[in-house]
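Example record for the data management plan.
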Amino acid sequence: MTNEEIRAACEAILFASGEPLESARIAEALEMKTEDVNGALWEIGRLLDERKSGICLLRLGSKYQLCSRVEYAQYIRSVLEIRKNAPLSNAALEVLAVVAYNQPVTKAYIEQIRGVDCSGVVSTLCQKGLLEEKGRLDLPGKPLLYGTTPDFLRCFCLSSLADLPELPEKAVFEPERNDEEIDNEQGVQIKSFFQDDEE
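Corresponding structural encoding:
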């Protein structure tokens, strides 16, 4: 196949899927090397951006998905009569921040960080597809481990978890502030980052 045909095949597969796909899976279908497919996908994204298409190619970790651009969301909602989702609560944003930076984690770990029960929030985030079960911890009771999903990356416009902002380092010596106060400040900064992106 020519480069143009490879790009067309990748585009057709992603369009038909409607869900994020691993580039390795596309490569297997096309009987090609994964790196060659990655190159074709990068070129698709560049061409869509270059011609200011209403469609863009998102990279979500090792997965790719064709999506409409966010600036046209209101028109799409209007035509398809889709109601805008309710914004995430502060509690949900805090739980997402804890999980994103420490995953995989147990619910008990999240509750230890936040100091309150998080069962309802974790369940809601799983239902929204922002968190998912990542197995079980090899401890008595086998507690579930949670991590973020590709939908989490998409919602916050991240290509991978490596794009998360660095957490501020604790000061080596600040006698006027204790560790709890510093941790609280970090939580506010992380939550602020997610709230800004959510908007």
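Summary line stored alongside the record: The CA atoms of residues 48 and 56 lie 6 Å apart.
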